[in-house]
Amino acid sequence: MKRKILVVDDEPSIVTLLQYNLEQAGFEVIIAMDGEAGKTIVITESPDLIILDVMLPKLDGMEVCRQLRQEKIKTPILMLTAKDSELDKILGLEFGADDYMVKPFSPREVVARVKAILRRVQLQPEHGNNTDLEESQIIVGELIIYPDKYEARFQDHLLELTLKEFELLLHLAKNKNRIQSRDQLLNAVWNYEVSGDSRIVDVHISHLRDKIEEDTRRPVYIKTFRGVGYRLEEPKEK
User: Fold this and answer.
1) Residue 222, SS3?
2) Spatial distance between the Cα atoms of 160 and 210, rounded to a whole number of angstroms
3) How many CA atoms lie within 13 A of 72 on its CB side?
4) C-alpha to C-alpha distance for 99 and 11, rounded to whole angstroms
5) Which of 11, 25, 54, 151 has the most CB atoms around its CB within 10 Å?
6) What is the CATH number of the domain that holds 85?
7) Cβ(150)–Cβ(162) below 8 Å
8) What is the pLDDT along the chain (238 residues), one digit of tens a residue?
9) Is residue 69, in this structure, part of any structural domain at all?
10) Number of folded domains in the chain?
11) 117: number of CA atoms within 13 Å, CB side?
12) Among 96, 122, 148, which residue terminates a domain?
């Protein structure tokens, strides 16, 4: 069965370009020309991935992304923006997007990004399918990470993480007690050229701290080393 991609964009030329290249790559493509229609289609059609433009009529892409995540819809989102603005990228990621691209873009790169995101999603087995997966885990204090399940729990509560947040947390856990520079994290988690976008790391670190730190101003798990990077470590006993 073909994987279903929803393209939400109000520029016919962009829609045509994306539809042609995605269909050539073997995907089924469905189209929405405004944010409200896009959100409705997500609910009715359950696409495997959403390509979502930022500038849309009726409901902009940021708001669509925010509302979907607020409603616990975890469908991966690749955001498109016409502005080469760091603020747009950061806002999209803060609202729960998994990735972003700046217009104009290469259709081949869009297809490559879509395939990469879907590969990561495919690695996530359905909950309860295999109890043996419980054996594969990384424990740091009250944080338990299940790499094979793409899940993490803190104080026995399942964490709501985007793919990038999970991959960042997993990389930090695998390198526990070792400082990771922003460039190392960009290379490990965003494995394509993202030169100058180190702020994206900071945003994701902030999101993780919101979910596992009692006091984000005095973190005990994810420590900052100014001018160097971040380190995940065992919290000291009180």
Assistant:
1) strand
2) 11
3) 2
4) 20
5) 54
6) 3.40.50.2300
7) no
8) 789 999 999 999 999 999 999 999 999 999 999 999 999 999 999 999 999 998 899 999 989 998 998 888 889 999 888 766 666 666 667 777 888 888 888 888 889 889 888 877 765 544 444 444 444 889 999 999 988 878 899 988 889 888 788 889 999 999 999 999 988 888 888 765 445 567 788 888 999 999 999 899 999 999 999 888 999 999 886 5
9) yes
10) 2
11) 25
12) 122
Q: Are residues 136 and 157 in the same domain?
A: yes
Q: Which residue is it, tokens 């609202």? A: 95
| Cα separation values, 207 from 147, 201, 215, 216, Å | 19, 10, 13, 10
| Rounded distance between C-alpha atoms, residue 196 and residue 193, angstroms | 9
- Cα–Cα distances (Å) from 84 to 64, 111, 155, in that order, read 20, 20, 40
